Amino acid sequence: MSTDYQYVPEPALVKGDHSFGSITDLIAKTPLSPTPKLWYLAFGLANILLITLLGAIGYLIWDGIGIWGLNNPAGWGWAIINFVWWVGIGHAGTLISAILFLFRQGWRTAINRFAEAMTIFAVMCAGIFPAIHVGRIWVIYWVFPIPNQMAAWPNFSSPLLWDVFAVSTYFTVSLLFWYVGLIPDFATLRDKTKSKVAKITYGIASLGWTGSFRNWWNYEKAYMILAGLATPLVLSVHTIVSFDFAVSVIPGWHSTIFPPYFVAGAIYSGFAMVLTLMLIARKIYGLEDIMNIDIMEKMNLVMMITGNLVAFAYLMEGFIAWYSGYIYEQGIFWLYVVGPYAWGFWILMFCNVVTPQFLWFKKIRRNVAITFVISIIVNIGMWFERFMISVASLSTDFMPSAWDYYSPTFWDIITYIGTFGLFFTFFLLFLRFMPMVAIAEVKGVMPQADPHNYDEETNEFDIEKTKPVVVQQEQTV
Amino acid sequence: MAQIFPRWANEVPQRILLGLIIFATATVAGVWYYFSPEYTDVGYAPEQPIEYSHKLHAGKLDIDCQYCHTNVFDSKHANVPATQTCMNCHNQIDGQNKPKEVQKIRDSWESDESIEWVRVHNLPDYAYFNHAAHVNVGVGCESCHGRVDRMEVVRQVEPLSMSWCLDCHRNPEQNVRPVEEVTTMGYKPEKDQIEMGRELVAKHNIAPPTYCQSCHY
Description:
- The complex is a heterodimer.
- Chain A has helices at residues 20-32, 37-63, 78-102, 112-132, 159-192, 196-205, 213-246, 258-284, 293-324, 327-338, 342-358, 362-365, 368-395, 410-433, 439-445, 463-476.
- By secondary structure, chain A is mainly α.
- By secondary structure, chain B is mainly alpha-helical.
- The chains are: A mainly alpha, B mainly alpha.
- Chains A and B meet through helix 6 of A and helix 9 of B.
- Chain A: Belongs to the NrfD family.
C-alpha cells in the first residue's frame, strides 16, 4: 500500500455562496409565494387519478374482488405486489432520515425532509392494499386485538397480522419523526409569512417554538431517540413484509434470505424514487445548490450497493435451488427462467442486476439525465421483482393440476395507477405548503455553523496547519 | 415581531388534552354499551300475528314446554307448533279472554294458511346451534330463554352473542341441571349449583366444545 495518501476534504454540502439568510429565503420562498399555474395543473392531474382510485375501490367493494384477475392458485396478485412495492418505496425515507442521522451523514440534510414526506405518502398508498384486497372489508377491524362480544381475538402467529402492527407503527413513527423535524421550520415560516391565516396556521403547527437553547437541547435528544427507534423499525417492517412470503411453504417463497433481501430491495427502490422526485423538484424549485450533484452521487452509491445486494440474493436463490437438491425449488427457479413468466424474470434481471452496474462509473453517477433514467428503471425492476415473487411462485407450485396463468384485469391496473394519484396529491400539497428541505438542518451543516469557521488559522484549509493538532491529540491519549 | 396568539391560547393544549380524554372515554364506553348485543338484541319482543300468551299456557295452565315444542330433545331445531297442536284444545275451547285470537287459529286451520310467527331468537345462519345436544345433557330452557312462563309476549333475555355461548361452554357447571328438570321453570337446585354442576358434568361426560368447527362447521 502506498503511504503517499493525503486528506481529501469533503466537498461543501451546499453549493453556491450561500449565507444562513439566503438559504432560508431559497427554501421558504416556495410555501410563501403565490401558487404557480404548473402546480395547479399537476394537482389537477393527481386529483383525477385519485378519484379514479376511489372509484376503483368503490366498485371493488361493491362488486367483490372477483373484478381482479386473481385465480385459484394465484390468490395474491397486483394488490400485494403494489403493497410491497409501495412499502419498499417508503423505506428510503426512514433510511435517509434515521440511519444516516445515526451515522452522522451531513449530506442527508439536503433530502431528508423530502424523503420522509415520500415515506409517509408511500406508506399511505401501501396501507390501502392490505385493507382492500380482503373479500370483506367491513370486518377488517377484526384484525385488531379489541375485546369484543365474540370473545374472538386475532391469531398472533400470522405474518399478515404482524403486517398490521408493522405498517401502522411504521406510519405513526414516520409521521412523528417527520413532524418533529418540521417544528423548527414551521416556526421559520410562521415568522416569515405576511399572511394572517398562514401565520396562525404555521403558528399552531410550530407549537410555540422559540428556538431557545432549551428547545434545541430537547429537540436534538428527541430526534436522536426517534432516529434510534426508527432504525430497527425500518429493518423489521420490511422483514415482516417479507415474512408474508418466507413463512409459507411455497417453493420460491420459503426462503430464509428474504428478510435482508427485501430490506435491501426496499432501500434500492426507495432511493430510486427519491432520486426521481428530487431531480424533478430541484429543477422546478431551483434547489440545485442544496440537492446538488454530490448528493446525487452519494445516493447513486447507496443504490449501487443495495442493487448489488439484491443481485447477490438472486444469484443465491439460483444457487440454493441447485444446491438444495429439491425438485420443487429447482423447478420453480427453472420456471422463472424459461417458464410462462420468463419475460418478467428477464426484465427483472436487466433492471436490477445490469442497471446498477452502470453506477460503478463516476461519470454516470454524476450525470443527472442518466441517473434519472436509471432511477425509473430501478423502480420498474423492483415492481417486477415483487411480481415474480408473488405471481410466478403461486401460479406453478406443487401440483401441476393447480397451475394457472395469472393476468391482471383493467381494475388491477387502474387501482395501481390510481395510487399514484393519492401519492402525488399529498406530495404536491407537501411541496406547496411545507418547507421541502429541512432549513434548520441544512444550516447546521454549512461552514458558517462550524464554530471554528471564522478562526484566523483554520479559515482556509491547510494540511500543514492541521497536522500538529492531530499529533497533539495522539500524545494526550 | 407582533404577537400572534392571544393570552388564552396558553390554556389550549390542556383543554385539547382534556377534550380528547373525555371524547375517547365516551367513545369507548358508548361503543361498549350501545354496540353490544346486550343492548341491541336483549329485550327484542316483536308483535306476533296472534296475541299468544306463554304466561297463560305455560304459567297458569302449567303445560310442559315439550307439549308444543316437541322436537327439542330429538332435533337440532326446536319447532314452533303447527296449527294442529293449537287445535287439539281450541277446536273445543274458545278463548275466554281473546276470542278473536282463537278465531285466527281456526281460520288458519280452515284455510290451510300457516301462521306467520315472528322469530325472536335469531342466530346467524353460520352458527349451527343444536337444541337436542343441550337439553339432553341438562341445560334448562330457562337458562337461555328466561322465565318464559311469565312472559305475556316472548322476548329475548340473553344476548346470544358468541362470548355468552363461550362463557357457558368454558364453565358448564354453572348452568347444568338434572335432565328431568330441564323444562322446569324456576328450578332451585337442592344443593349448591356449582357442586351439583360439577357432578353432572362428570356424570354426563360433558365436554363443551370451544373450537370453531363445533358451531361454525
